[in-house]
Each structure stands twice: as C-alpha cells, then as structure tokens.
C-alpha cells in the first residue's frame, strides 16, 4: 500500500480514537498532525490559543510518501492533495458534540465556536475543497463506536463499500429557537 489516508473533523468527532484503529486495520503507521507540528516547533501559544504555521507544516509533509493514516483538524491545510489517496471527515450531530466538548472542559466560547463550525460543515467544506469530491467522504460518528467507525472507513477505503451521502446538520436546526438552543451557553 503506497497511500496516505487523512482523517479529519471538528474537535470532538473522534479522530484520536478512530484513526489509530483504522491504521491498525490497514497495517500502516498512524501520525497526529498536531504531534508532528509540536515535534517540529510549529505550534505557538497566542492569547491562550494554539496557532500553527500551516505553510511550514505543509513543507514538513512535502514528499512524505510512507503508507500512513494522518489525522487532525488541520489536515486540509497541512497536506498536499497529491499525497492523499483518501480523506475522511468525521462528523457528529452538533448537540451531541456540544455535550462532548463541554465534558472535556472546553471554554464556553470554544464549545460554541466548534459546535457552530460542525453545524455548518467548516472542516468538511475545507476538506472537500482541498482534496476533491472523488477522494473525500464523510462518516457520522454520533452514535458509532470507534471500532465500528474504523471498520466502516476501512470498507470504503478498500472498495468493499460505498461512502454515504454528504451530511447536512442544518436541516435539523431549521428554526430560530432550535439554533438559539444549540448555540447558547448552558443548554444542549
């Protein structure tokens, strides 16, 4: 296997749990994009938030050709599309994601920012734009165990199954009341 599989998604969608299981199933190495950035001194703290030099990170991966699963929300900004054979976007229903992130102790602002990002599909859109429709697909991890998600991803990557349709959470939040409840602090 001479390919790189990218796994990305909004924080809290399951990348750290699913990617190593997928790599194990594919018998390839698994690398965290954040880990690579940290190891090369490309993460900087600014005002309590971490920023990465995406151009420098992209250079770190230039020419990387070992079979691997690379994961992180920065995937569409850090890997040249020619290096990636498949890009997978993990998605999670926004109200469930809100509970997950709050449970991790994220600040209220960070929870709402990430829930809003997932609702409108920011990471998904960036990934489809970076790698194209033919290479990119999504999977809903809302009620899926990491092992089940990794198995489903492996099936699509191996060509044993077809990816599902694109996910659009906005259809479930079609009123102002639903949006306010989702995007307000202290409710889920």
Describe this structure in words.
The protein is α/β, with parallel strands linked by helices. The chain has nine helices and seven strands, in the order βαβαββαβαβαααβαα. It has a single domain, classed as P-loop containing nucleotide triphosphate hydrolases (Rossmann fold), CATH 3.40.50.300. A five-stranded parallel β-sheet has the order 2-5-1-6-7, sandwiched between helices. Strand 3 and strand 4 (49-52) form a beta hairpin.
Task: Return residue spans where pLDDT drops below 50 for at least 5 consecutive residues.
Answer: none
* Helix fraction bin: 40-55%
Q: Which percent band covers the strand fraction?
A: 15-25%
What is the CATH third-level topology name? Rossmann fold
Oligomer: single chain
Count of domains: 1
* Global Rg: 16 Å
The helix-strand sequence is EHEHEEHEHEHHHEHH
Briefly, what CATH class? Alpha Beta
Give a brief description:
By secondary structure, the chain is α/β, with parallel strands linked by helices. It has nine helices and seven strands; from the N terminus they run βαβαββαβαβαααβαα.
Summarize the SSE layout with pairings.
Blueprint lengths: L3 E6 L5 H12 L2 E4 H7 L3 E4 L2 E4 L1 H8 L6 E4 L3 H4 L5 E8 L2 H10 L4 H13 L1 H10 L4 E5 L5 H12 L18 H8 L5
Parallel strand pairs: 1-5, 1-6, 2-5, 6-7
Antiparallel strand pairs: 3-4
Helix pairs in contact: 1-8, 5-6
């Amino acid at each position: 296997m001479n390919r790189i599989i990218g796994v990305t998604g909004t924080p809290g969608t399951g990348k750290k749990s699913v990617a190593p299981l997928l790599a194990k199933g594919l018998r390839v190495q698994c690398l965290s994009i954040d880990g690579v950035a940290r190891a090369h001194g490309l993460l900087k703290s600014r005002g309590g938030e971490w920023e990465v030099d995406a151009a420098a990170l992209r250079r770190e991966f230039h020419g990387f050709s070992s079979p691997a699963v690379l994961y992180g929300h920065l995937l569409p900004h850090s890997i040249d599309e020619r290096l990636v054979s498949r890009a997978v976007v993990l998605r999670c229903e926004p109200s469930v994601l809100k509970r997950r992130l709050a449970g991790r102790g994220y600040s209220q602002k960070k929870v709402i920012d990430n829930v809003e990002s997932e609702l409108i599909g920011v990471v998904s859109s960036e990934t489809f734009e970076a790698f194209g429709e033919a290479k990119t697909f999504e999977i809903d991890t809302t009620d899926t165990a990491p092992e089940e998600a990794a198995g489903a991803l492996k099936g699509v990557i191996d060509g044993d199954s077809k990816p599902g349709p694109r996910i659009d959470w906005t259809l479930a939040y079609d009123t102002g009341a639903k949006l306010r409840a989702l995007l307000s602090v202290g409710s889920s």
